[in-house]
Specification:
three-stranded antiparallel sheet, eight-stranded antiparallel sheet, homodimer, alpha+beta
Chain lengths: ~350, ~350
């Protein structure tokens, strides 16, 4: 950690280098911002006011409806289900079983999920499933916990469960309202698309994504129910990190190592978001080219910058923050590392 | 196709845009060159003199040793094996069986392969393998055909088969010599690394990779045995495109559609190379960030520029050159397309 190195002054993105042998084989550019709960920009690089889709990295924000509506209490959800509501899980047996059990408790089944089936993300889970003659289900979809959260909120609030992924459905409209308040942006008429799991994905600036996470990290300005929901979601994520991602995954490993100090969540196309409760800061990073590996290594650099990773946990995270590249025979052939200006 | 639009004059890379809804969600930069057999640069963009690892995209060049040494004739190899020697196959049953049969004909087994085991690249092949209680073998490795080619050449030339992936082994030294001659570069002391399958990978400029492919496409200046080997390898690739990649893959689809007009080969970290025999041109493209999807779409733009894809085959290739992005439920959520300056 070199806290003295300032923000790159020209507003250029930070670079993440992919080394093989003695050559940088590929190079990523990452835009990002770290913001406090008053909207102050603490650290920024690249086009940090560019609109992006936060993709799955905003799931902790989307879990607010489930918790603050009272749905989570009504159905006796534990940290595990709230972590799953904020998760992009790997579809390992433990994730799938927990989702099924949750839906059962709400009186629903996996047929009520409106995400498509997706194969598990680990070799072991894939092998186990196919060896048993089974096929991927909607519960295996990495977003099935988030969808279970939407269904649970819909049921609690008396909305129809069918069609809950549609932009016009009251669940999605409530979520839009939450995103507007948390991000401090007006989201009518902004670019939007459909996410990998079928729900709307809405574009707003990187810095406002970071601000939304800052409000989660430091929610004392927020209404009581929302502030309590922010605390509960971050606590659930950091207490049950395996349910937020899965075996060997970046978010899981970081939250396991830096217990309670950070909640991190990645999304497709190179998005990483994080909340630092002790600092009252929110982080949003976007790899320009959509590479998840770049966003992860950039998040590692930012977390080191803020001392989230100190000497006591650094050894556990070296392999995550500057990962080695190995070939099929297990030989180390390279590594991914922050470029010099990203070593804050 | 708009052949009038010139090379971007400022030497900037071309951009490949990843759309979701009405927003460019991610953007790639691709460097590249199209070169003729006299070394004339016909089209170039970005840092086309930057050194890159050609990775698996150079496999057609590496197959030269197998063919010109006489090994291919001695062991009665057909187009299928020569295509496999130039392949990054998907480890589908047909690929694996062909490799095993080839090795058997040379008196070797998959235990002689020095690449690591790799799971098949298609969901169907993966499911079939695990459902049968089997595990990935070295023959499943996408490079097993190339390795079989090295082993066959080693056997024919009287070299030890053991250690054939080492930089010092005579097979690798011969291959280096071939690369030097074909690329017109001196390869002593240049950056090098280890490839995903264990062999050395050597860095030299993008334009020289393109020149090497141009010499394959138009080998009339080359010694007779090498020229014949160039013809034979390109013919094998274009006649047996499934063996060069596999079901649904970019290289396979392009060569199936543009029969005989182009041999294309991708490599890890966003490399694409191609030979246009009718034009006597070679192509090399490198996505700066290593994204294969960007290199493929850029290759599509270059092939259209040179009329390789005319109206008769364009419909088959639209989905490959500007692929749709679908979510897990099969809904179209976006597309990948060349940026305006890449629509040559």
């Amino acid at each position: 950690m070199s806290p003295e190195i300032p923000i790159p002054e020209d507003g250029s993105p930070i670079e993440i280098d992919v080394w093989r042998g003695n050559l940088i084989e590929s190079r990523h550019r990452v835009h990002g911002a770290v913001v406090d709960a008053h909207g102050g920009v603490v650290l920024a690089f690249g086009d940090y006011n560019a609109p992006i889709y936060g993709r799955s990295a905003i799931k902790p924000l989307l879990a607010l409806l489930l918790v603050e509506s009272g749905a989570a209490d009504r159905y006796n959800l534990t940290d595990r289900e709230i972590a799953l509501a904020s998760a992009s899980h790997s579809g390992e047996p433990g994730h799938v079983d927990a989702v099924k059990s949750w839906l059962g408790g709400v009186g629903l089944t996996i047929d009520d999920l409106e995400c498509g089936p997706q194969a598990p993300g680990t070799e072991a889970a894939l092998r186990e499933m196919y060896a048993a003659g089974a096929m991927p289900t909607r519960a295996h979809n990495n977003c099935s916990g988030k969808h279970s959260g939407f269904l649970t909120a819909a049921r609690h609030l008396g909305f129809p469960t069918k069609g809950y992924i549609q932009y016009e459905h009251p669940v999605q409209q409530r979520l839009l309202g939450i995103l507007e308040q948390m991000s401090g942006t007006e989201l009518t008429g902004v670019p939007r698309g459909i996410d990998g799991c079928g729900i709307p994905t809405i574009a707003f600036p990187i810095a406002n994504h970071a601000f939304a996470m800052a409000q989660m990290a430091d929610p004392h300005h927020l209404p009581e129910a929302r502030a309590a929901a922010c605390h509960r979601i971050l606590r659930a994520m950091t207490r049950e990190p395996w349910y937020v991602a899965g075996t060997g995954r970046f978010c899981t490993k970081v939250m396991e190592a830096a217990i309670g100090k950070v909640a991190v969540k990645g999304g497709a196309e190179g998005v990483q978001m994080g909340a630092l409760p002790e600092h009252g800061l929110g982080i949003c990073l976007k790899a320009a080219d959509g590479a998840g590996r770049a966003a992860e290594v950039a998040m590692g650099a930012v977390l080191r910058r803020f001392g989230v990773v100190d000497d006591s946990v650094a050894p556990q995270l070296g392999s995550v923050f500057e990962p080695e590249i190995r070939n099929w025979a297990g030989t180390v052939t390279g590594r991914i590392a922050p470029g010099s200006e990203a070593r804050f």
